[in-house]
Amino acid sequence: MARFGVEAIRYFNHARAAGVSTAGDLTYIFSRSNGFDSTLRSAGHTRAFYWSDTSVWETDIRDLDQGGGDRNWVDDVDLFWIETHGNSEADGRARMLYDIAHSEWRTWSDQWQLGEDWNSEWVMAYSCHTVNLAAVTGLWNIFARLHIYCGAWGDMYDGITTDECGEDVADNLVDGDTVSGAWHDGVSDWWVDNHPVTVCVGDAATWNGGNIRWDLSALNRDHLWGHGNVGPDLAPAQQACILWKWTEGSEPIRVGVGKRVAMHGGCEQGARRPHGEPCNDEQRSARLPGAPGATHTYPDRLSP
């Protein structure tokens, strides 16, 4: 069975007060994160940590070699779920906002190296625009044996019709869907068009001289531990290509491929409410070493 971690940021008042971002607060973030958490625990999986608001730090995902502490947090679990504001850079780097500077207000993906401690397999970021489809190879460095990065190539919505997305993703995982399929289906919505994307790396057999063997890719083969096949870790020296799938609303899944020095695609960005403004960016707050992360439950469901 899997060990997982959850981080969720609802309020961004400290980031706004510091002039770091104008990002608004989110409403249904703990409905999604709590649903993800409780569904996995009910299925016998182990929650390693659940940090919220200013107890979520950018150093949790930053590589140890970059001054971070990923070995104790994101790189110490099989599956990591995070909710915050996000975006991406022209060079393909993802970025996410926090509500505390520990040590930075934002994280950039060029400081991530996940899976190198043989733990992190899957990262799920419910945030806007954390994958630039025009520069997916800019994420290659995060795959230090990481299997799949689940993010967004455009807007992701925070609203009353997306409040069950976390539970839906977790339900899919424990029902035996692939990790990639669980993400694409679980964050889909009948009212708004979310923009999920899943990214993985493949070896020489998957690359197959450019005639991609999709059946060998982690996107088509990986399941949550205990619910199906899990492919092998691929060290950087074994990686020959980067692969991605993306969807919009009820549109069919589309795919893209990149090799070490080339890639292609198109792009978009942001997370927003069904009847509100886009909310692009991220944030976090302070905690004492070893202090438990708060698990927030917000029973109130405010209209969007």
Beta strand %: 15-25%
Structural class: alpha/beta
Strands, total number:
13
Mean pLDDT: 85
Return Rg in Å: 17 Å
The major β-sheet equals: 8 strands, mixed
Distance between the termini: 37 Å
CATH architecture: 3-Layer(aba) Sandwich
Helicity range: 10-25%
User: What is the count of distinct domains?
Assistant: 1
CATH class: Alpha Beta
- Main sheet: strand order: 2-1-3-7-8-10-11-12
Low-confidence stretches: 260-304
Overall 3D form: globular
Q: How would you describe the overall organization of this protein?
A:
This protein is α/β, with parallel strands linked by helices and 304 residues long. It has a single domain (3-272), classed as Rossmann fold (3-Layer(aba) Sandwich). Helix content is 15%, strand content 20%. The protein has helices at 13-17, 29-42, 165-174, 179-186, 204-207, 218-221; strands at 3-8, 46-52, 79-83, 86-88, 94-97, 106-108, 122-126, 148-152, 156-157, 196-202, 241-246, 254-259, 271-272. An eight-stranded mixed β-sheet has the order 2-1-3-7-8-10-11-12. A three-stranded antiparallel β-sheet has the order 4-5-6, with no helix packed on it. α2 packs parallel to α3. The radius of gyration is 17 Å and the shape is globular. The termini are far apart. The model is unreliable at 260-304 (pLDDT under 50).
SSE layout:
Blueprint: E1 3-8, H1 13-17, H2 29-42, E2 46-52, E3 79-83, E4 86-88, E5 94-97, E6 106-108, E7 122-126, E8 148-152, E9 156-157, H3 165-174, H4 179-186, E10 196-202, H5 204-207, H6 218-221, E11 241-246, E12 254-259, E13 271-272
